[in-house]
Model the fold of this input.
Amino acid sequence: MAEIRIRNTDERIQGEENVRAFLESQEVLYEHWNPSKLREELQEKFVLSDEEKQEVLNTFDEEIRDLAARRGYRTWDVITLSEATPNLEELLAKFENVHTHTEDEVRAITAGKGIFIIKGSDDVGYFDVELTAGDVISVPENKPHFFTLMENKQIVAVRLFIEPEGWIAHPHNDPNFQK
Ligand SMILES: [Fe+2]
Done:
């Protein structure tokens, strides 16, 4: 279940309703899918064949289509990241820069863990959203953020898009951001 850490105060926000309410106040959509719908073997597998990726999409087809219909997403796919990913460290180094997009960045975690670091309102500042399997997040367009893995370095997520071009990252150079 998702957990929030506000970087300036180290305050933590836990519990589905509290997390949802906080994220809503920051204009970030948060939902939860049932991760145990996925075949048990796939709940702990981070290198997937095309057939297995399709199985992930099929398992959550209803949830994906429901979210897509509500928010206008038109395409979706599955990404995997783990120590088996070629050039993982390079990829992570590239990810770990604050940026924005011209459309929502949507991730539904189906296995593993990850963190979104998001620039909140002026009174909150940057906060971390730690996501585990079942957590679904949509960071709105033009909201500065980046994504990285947690210490286990393993994740499988469904991504949803309006237009593939909307996903291009625009750097957000913020002198106030500290890693
Ligand atoms: Fe992004």
Notes: The helical segments are 16-25, 50-59, 61-71, 88-95. The first helix runs from residue 16 to 25. The pocket of fe (ii) ion is lined by residues 99, 101, 105, 145, 169 (CB under 6 Å).
